[in-house]
Design goal:
One of its GO terms (molecular function) is nucleic acid binding. The chain has about 70 residues and is α+β, with helices and mostly antiparallel strands. It has one helix spanning about 40-55, and strands at about 5-15, 15-25, 30-35, 60. It has a single domain (about 5-60), classed as Ribonuclease H-like superfamily/Ribonuclease H (Nucleotidyltransferase, domain 5).
Length: about 70
């Protein structure tokens, strides 16, 4: 687990907020973070926190499947 992850934003929801979804492709474990903006000043600290909890994955993909149902 946590060797390959995918991440993407789930549009602008909850008013003026964005939802960042990070998923472990093996276990399907989700990390969800609500952000006010999607610039590097807010996104990088989220990944730093997630990587410190679970380790740095070997592969980090953009997951466009999140928009499909």
């Amino acid at each position: 687990p946590w060797h390959e992850i995918s991440a993407d934003f789930w549009g602008q929801t909850l008013g003026e907020k964005y939802v960042l979804v990070i998923i472990d492709n093996y276990s399907q474990f989700l990390v969800v973070q609500i952000l006010n903006t999607i610039n590097s000043d807010t996104v990088i600290p989220v990944f730093d926190k997630v990587y410190s909890m679970f380790g740095i994955p070997k592969v980090n993909k953009q997951w466009t499947y999140i928009y499909k149902q």
